[in-house]
Amino acid sequence: MSNATHTSTTKSNGAYIPLRYKLLFSYLILVLTPVIVIGSYSYVSSVRSSEEHTRSNLEIAVKQIGSNVDYRLADVIRGSDDIFTDQALSRILSGYYLDYEKYTITTQYIMPKLESAVNLPILDTKLSVFLSNKNISEFYYISEFYFDDQNGKGQETQGRQYSIFHMDRIVDRDWYKTLPMTYEAKTWKQIEDDVEKGGISFLRPIINYETLSPIGLINMNVKLKDIFYDVDFTKLGDNSMLFVIDGNNHLLYSSSRTDLNPNLLSVAKDGFVGAPDDYMQIKQPITNMNASIVAWIPNSSFQENSEQVRNLTILICMVSLIVMTIISWVMSRYFSKRFMKLIRSLKAFKEGDFHKRMVVPGNDEFSQIGDAFNDMASNMEKLIDEVYLSKLEKKEVELQVLHSQMNPHFLYNTFSSISRMAKLGEIDKMHEMVRGLAKFYRLSLNKGEMIISIDKEVQIIQSYVDIQRIKFADRIIVEYDIDEETLGYDTIKFILQPFVENVLEHAWYDDEIHLFIRVALEGEEIVMEIRDNGIGMKEETIEQVLDPSEKGVGYGIRNVDQRIKLQFGKSYGVSITSSIGEGTTVRIRFPRYAK
C-alpha cells in the first residue's frame, strides 16, 4: 500500500496559549468584573452609610450635650422663678418701712426667701438682688480669699451666696443700659468681672405686679464650667473640639485637647466663623440661652471607619477572588482535559490510527462530540479499508496482467528455438531445451503466486540461462554473485529474466557475451544488478526504454519497472546506465520484503 503524505500548515500569529489558560483568563475576567463593581459599590455605599451613621451619632451626642446644658440652665432659671413669681415678695420689696420694721421684714421674709432661691439650683450660685427701693437695707457677703500654694494666686471662695444691693450701683453701667427690663425678659450675659472669673450671669427684672413696672433686678451668677459641665470633647472623640458661642458669635466656652493646634482655638476666640476644611461642624442651639454648642470633628475620624470598611471590603473581595479563581481553575482544567482527550484522538486519527476511539462520559456537548468522532472514525476506517482493499485488488490484477504478458513473449521465443532445432535435426538439444523449459515453468508457476522468494527468482534465472546456453552453445558466459542473506526475502517473480533476455537479443558485440548477475543488500534495500559487456545503448534509447508512454522498444524492461512500483512504491524500480562499446548495467531496487 502506498501512503500519501499530507502536509498540514498551522498559521500562527503569536505564542501558543493553551485553552486551559484562555478559559481561566476568561473566567477570571467574568469573576473580577462583578467583584470589582460590586466591591466598589459596596465600599462607596458602606463608606457613605458609615459617614451618615457616624454623623447621625455625633449629632445625637451633641444634641444630648445641649439637652444636659439646657437642664442645668433651666435649674438656675427655676431658682430665679422662686423670686420672680412671688407676688408677696414683690409687694414687700416695693413698700416703705420704719427701721424696726425693716429688720423684721428682712430677717423673717426677705433673707429666707433669697436663701431658698439660691439653694434651689443644684449648682453653686451667687444671687444678687438689686432694688430701686432704698428703704430696704443692703445686705451682702464679703468675698473671702485663700492663698493657692500651687500657683501663688489668690482664689475666691466658692459656695452659695446671696446679697441685696441698691440699683444706683449699676444704673450707670453700660451692660445695664442695654438690658431689657420687660416682664418676660431673661438674659444670660457676662457682666462686670464674669469674663475674668469664668462666670456668667442670668439677669431678669423684679416686677411690681400692681403696676407691672420693674422694681429691681435678679442676678444669678454661676461658673461656666458648671453650666457647661457636659460640654466635653471626649464624648465625640479625642481630636474633636467643642465650643459654646453666644448670639453674637463670641466664644463663651471651649473643650479640646491641650496639644491640639493652638491656631484653631485662636481662630474661634477672635471671631467664630466656621470649621476648617479638614473638620466637620455640627451646631446645636441651646434652648434656654441665646447661644449654641458647636462641635468640630476631624474628617480623619470618618476616614478611620472608612478604612475599616475599605479593609473589610478588600478582604471580602480577595477571599471571593481566591475562591472563584480556584473554582475557575478547576473548571478550566476539567474542560481542558476533555478537549485534550479530543485533540489526542484527532492527532492519532491524523497519524493513521483509525482504530482510536473516544470514551466521553456524561450527556453533554462533549459526549456528543465524542460520539460524532467515534462514528466518523468508524466510517472513515470502513471507507479506507474498502479503498485500500480495492487498490490492492486493482494492483493485483495489474500485476497479473503484466505477468501474463511476460509468459507468452518468453514462450514464443523458446518455441521458435525448438522449432529451429527440429528443422536442423538437433534432437538432443531440443530434448534438453524442453526439459529446461519444463523446469523453468515448474519454478515460475509457483501455484499462481505473484510473490516468490529471491531464492526461487535466482533459480528461475539460472534455469533460463541454462535454456539459452542450449540455444547459443558456449557463447554465453555468466557469473553469479548472490548474497545468501537475501535469499530469505521475497520479491515479485520474473524481474531478472527480461533483462537477460534483452541482453541476448540486442547486446551482442562479439562472438561471446559476458553476463554478471549480482543480488546484494544495501541498507534497507535489496539490489539486483545485471551487467554485460555488450554493445551498449545511447542515452536516448535508455529514456525510451523507461518511458511509460513509449509503446515500442523496451516493453519487458518497462513491465518490470511498473510491477516493482505497483508493489513497493514509486521510489523503487529500475535504473539503467550504459556506454557505447562498453556494455550496460541494470540496477533493480526494492525494499526488504517478506510475506
Structural class: alpha+beta
Distance between the termini: 14 Å
Main beta sheet strand tally, sense and closure: 5 strands, mixed
Q: Strand fraction band?
A: 15-25%
GO molecular function: ATP binding; phosphorelay sensor kinase activity
Domain Histidine kinase: 495-594
EC number: 2.7.13.3
Domain HAMP: 333-385
Helices and strands, with pairings:
Blueprint: H1 19-84, H2 87-94, H3 99-119, E1 126-131, E2 145-147, E3 154-156, E4 161-166, H4 174-177, E5 187-189, H5 194-197, E6 199-208, E7 213-223, H6 224-227, E8 241-246, E9 251-255, H7 262-270, E10 279-286, E11 291-298, H8 299-350, H9 365-424, H10 427-445, E12 451-453, H11 454-472, E13 476-482, E14 490-492, H12 497-506, E15 513-522, E16 525-532, H13 539-546, H14 555-568, E17 573-579, E18 583-591
Protein name: histidine kinase
Pfam families: HAMP, HATPase_c, His_kinase
GO molecular function: ATP binding; phosphorelay sensor kinase activity
Describe this structure as you would to a colleague.
By secondary structure, the protein is an alpha+beta fold. Among the domains are: 58-300, no CATH class; 440-591, Heat Shock Protein 90. The chain contains 14 helices and 18 strands. The protein has helices at residues 19-84, 87-94, 99-119, 174-177, 194-197, 224-227, 262-270, 299-350, 365-424, 427-445, 454-472, 497-506, 539-546, 555-568, and strands spanning 126-131, 145-147, 154-156, 161-166, 187-189, 199-208, 213-223, 241-246, 251-255, 279-286, 291-298, 451-453, 476-482, 490-492, 513-522, 525-532, 573-579, 583-591. The strands form five sheets. It has a five-stranded mixed β-sheet with strand order 4-1-7-6-5. Strands 13-15-16-18-17 form a five-stranded mixed β-sheet. Strand 2 (145-147) and strand 3 (154-156) form a beta hairpin. Helix 1 packs antiparallel against helix 3, helix 1 (19-84) packs antiparallel against helix 8 (299-350) and helix 9 runs antiparallel to helix 14. The longest helix is centred in the first third of the chain and has 66 residues, at 19-84. The chain is rod-shaped and about 205 Å long. It starts with 18 loop residues before the first helix and ends with a strand. It is found in: Cell membrane. One of its GO terms (cellular component) is plasma membrane. Keywords: ATP-binding, Cell membrane, Kinase, Membrane, Nucleotide-binding, Phosphoprotein, Transferase, Transmembrane, Transmembrane helix, Two-component regulatory system. It comes from Cohnella herbarum. Residues 333-385 form the HAMP domain.
